[in-house]
Design brief:
Elements lengths: L25 H14 L6 E3 L9 E6 L2 E13 L3 E8 L2 E11 L1 E7 L5 E7 L1 H13 L10 H14 L1
Amino acid sequence: MAVREIRVLPDPVLRTKCEEITEIDDGVRGLVQDLLDTVDDEGRAGLAANQIGVNLRAFSWNVDDEIGYILNPRLVDKSEEFIEADEGCLSVPGLWYPLARANYAKVEGIDLDGNPVTVEGTGLMARCLQHECDHLDGKLYLDRLERATRVRAMRELRERL
C-alpha cells in the first residue's frame, strides 16, 4: 500500500497505549501492508503501528532477511540472560544508547486470519520483539535506560528539538 511517515518525539501517539485489534477488516489489512512496506528499508529492524500514527496493537519486523508482522502481540517469555547493546529508535532519530535486554524473547499474537502466531528469537530479534512490544504499551527505549544515561539522552533530545 504505502511507506508511511514515521512519527517522532514529542508526538503524543508514541506515549499512548495501543488498543487491541478486535476485528480484522480491510483497515487492519491495509495497516499490516503499510507496516511491512515501511519496515522494508535498510536499517529498520521493527516498526510499531503507533510509530505511523495508528493506535492499534500491531508491529512488523525486518531482521536477518525476514520480514513479518504480528497482531495483538504479548511478550510471554524472555530469558534471564541479558545482553547490553546500543539501541536506537526510528521515532528518536540519531540517538543510540547502551541498553540491556533479554537475549531471548517470545511473543504470542494472531495473524490476519485470526490464527495464533508465536514469534521468538535471540539477539537482535529478541531485542526487536521487546522494543516493539514496549512501543505498543506507550514506552520508548529511553524509558529503560539507566538513570544517568537517560538524563544525558533527554538532554541531547531537548537540544535537537
